[in-house]
Write a structure and sequence with these properties.
Shape: globular
Family: Belongs to the TPP enzyme family.
Oligomer: single chain
CATH class of the largest domain: Alpha Beta
Strand order of the largest sheet: 2-1-3-4-6-5
Organism: Micromonospora taraxaci
Radius of gyration: 24 Å
Cofactor: thiamine diphosphate
CATH superfamily of the largest domain: Thiamin diphosphate (ThDP)-binding fold, Pyr/PP domains
Helix content: 25-40%
Mean pLDDT: 92
CATH architecture of the largest domain: 3-Layer(aba) Sandwich
Largest sheet: 6 strands, parallel
Keywords: Thiamine pyrophosphate
Distance between the termini: 52 Å
Protein name: Thiamine pyrophosphate-dependent acetolactate synthase large subunit-like protein
Strand content: 15-25%
Low-confidence stretches: 321-325
């Protein structure tokens, strides 16, 4: 058996069921080996799209994503999506064929490339092919993006270590008992505790909910974990730039803030202004290197979020309700305020629609009413991104995919395709700007080929709106970032999609008809949105530059 065959078989035995990519000579055999073992191959139009598909698939499915690309330019074409995945700590394996001869036109420094974007690098050896492939998959399953180097000469060599199984378990939990007594004491002393759960807490809804009930905490999340506590009466939704006025008010009066798997970056804390200076701040993370990276914290607890929460629950006084019975803020009155004002839909605004454009808030609220509750919302980057992030509800944490770790425009459409492959039972909604759509429209070919239920909503302001609203007020010329109005639905139809242009709420009728079924072709909505002003989250973003 050749090494490429061993690698494909081992990855499938470890759990790889879907692989995204573009096939060339360097990855032909390993991709075919995966398919022969039983994996599904999804052919993308471009390696950049394939990388984002694998990323979106992994985030939505909760399993390891697999990307297969050609050597040299196949790898570099995928680099932006790979960087987003690495910065998001997406569990993903990149099958990267490797030309090892320095004078080869395909040669690139793969280990250096991986290190430069924060990914792990592993390399397959002929003498240990099964061991190396399995180790790469298990590293990804622990939360890493792994570039797996497949030297061309090694792939075709006879494997000296045949694959025989069984598959080793993925070890994620630390054997060290977390030290939780200081955290327990802080929870007992607090009267207005708030939990902010981040990316590292996406699988910890149940223990964090029980712990919050035990100590009277309110629940909030970073944008990367939106939906984690959906349906909970004490859920404030996203902290930071996307926080509702009520959420900002309540977090701003907390006496204890516990960050669970969140580094409390500038987006989550509004550059540190959201959390009051008098609050005790605790950070819980499996990686001690994450402690205090974005702001000072008063107390740290090293350990997996679930393990720490359960350890605290084991020590919590039996039947204790902490702040609930001691003057805390879990009162019927506050529960009613959260019900009445805890969503952006309840916050009044002045509709800025005109005769030719629709207010993006009005558009998004109308879509939220039309769309089925079982949905996956995928957000591209750009001036528009707050509207779908705040006005569209999601059913759970798997229903929200936020491609913002690298802040690259143009990843959302392909990420949505990966999410749709992961959850075909749900409607997948790709929210993109017109700039990001034009960058990534080539993957509509893939969307049509897959015939997945996909709704693409373009917030079309005929500009790179972030730059318009940031530089325009200072009098800078904007010709480089503004464009003629373009019929983007005509482009979508050319790829084989259905399309509709929306300037008013009444124009959404075709969306309602498409939703009624059978949804065998993607629908692209070119929403001509009003662009009278910038957004407060945009101001936050540029403060970080």
């Amino acid at each position: 058996m050749r090494v490429a065959e061993v690698v494909g078989r081992v990855l499938h035995e470890h759990g790889a069921r879907v692989v995204f990519g573009v096939v060339g000579s360097g990855n032909f055999h390993v991709t075919n080996a995966l398919v022969a073992a039983g994996a599904r191959f999804v052919a993308a139009a471009h390696e950049g799209g394939a990388a984002s598909m694998a990323d979106g698939y992994a985030r939505t499915s909760g399993t390891v994503g697999l990307l297969s690309v050609h050597q040299g330019p196949g790898v570099t074409n995928a680099l932006t999506g790979l960087t987003e995945a690495a910065k998001s700590r997406t569990p993903m394996v990149v099958l990267a064929p490797e030309a090892t001869a320095p004078r080869s036109n395909f040669f690139i420094d793969l280990p250096g490339l991986a290190a430069a974007v924060g990914a792990e690098f592993h390399r397959v050896r002929a003498t240990h092919a099964a061991e190396d492939a399995g180790a790469a998959y298990r590293a990804a399953a622990r939360g890493a993006t792994v570039v797996l180097g497949l030297p061309l000469e090694v792939q075709n060599a006879a494997a000296t270590e045949p694959w025989s199984g069984p598959v080793p378990e993925v070890m994620t939990a630390s054997a060290v008992e977390p030290q939780v007594e200081p955290l327990l004491a802080a929870l007992r002393a607090a009267r207005r505790p708030v939990f902010i759960a981040g990316r590292g807490a996406r699988t910890a809804r149940e223990p964090l909910t029980r712990l919050a009930d035990g100590c009277g905490a309110l629940l909030a999340v970073s944008a990367a974990a939106k939906g984690l506590f959906a349906g909970n009466p004490w859920y404030l939704d996203v902290a930071g730039g996307f926080a509702t006025p009520l959420a900002a008010e309540l977090i701003g009066t907390a006496d204890l803030v516990v960050a669970w798997g969140s580094t409390l970056n500038m987006w989550t804390t509004r550059h540190g202004e959201l959390i009051p200076p008098t609050a005790v701040v605790v950070q819980v993370d499996h990686d001690p290197a994450a402690f205090g990276v974005n702001r000072p914290v008063d107390l740290t607890v090293a350990g997996e979020v679930t393990a720490v929460a359960e350890a605290v629950l084991d020590r919590l006084d039996p039947g204790a309700k902490g702040a609930v019975d001691a003057g805390g803020w879990r009162t019927p009155e506050l529960a009613q305020r959260i019900r009445d004002h805890g969503r952006w839909r309840a916050v009044p605004y002045r509709d800025e629609s005109d005769e030719s454009t629709i207010d993006p808030r009005t558009l998004t609220a109308a879509l939220d009413d039309l769309l089925p509750a079982d949905r996956t919302v995928v957000i591209d980057s750009g001036n528009f991104m707050g509207y779908p992030s705040m006005w569209l509800d999601v059913p759970d944490v798997a229903g929200f995919c936020f491609t913002q770790a690298f802040q690259s425009v143009g990843l959302g459409l392909a990420s949505a395709l990966g999410a749709a492959v992961a959850r075909p039972d749900r409607l997948t909604v790709a929210a993109v700007g017109d700039g990001g759509f034009v960058m990534s429209a080539t993957e509509l070919v893939t969307a049509v080929r897959l015939a997945l239920p996909l709704l693409v909503v373009i917030y079309d302001d005929a500009a790179y709106g972030a730059e318009v609203h940031h530089f325009g007020p200072d009098g800078h010329p904007l010709e480089t970032v503004t464009f003629p109005d373009t019929d983007l639905t005509a482009i979508a139809r050319g790829y084989g999609c259905d399309g509709v242009t929306v300037r008013t709420v009444d124009d959404l009728g075709p969306v309602r008809e498409w939703l009624a079924g059978p949804r065998t072709r993607p629908l692209v909505v070119d929403a001509k949105v009003s662009a009278a002003r910038g957004s407060w989250w945009l101001e936050e973003a540029f403060r970080g530059h």
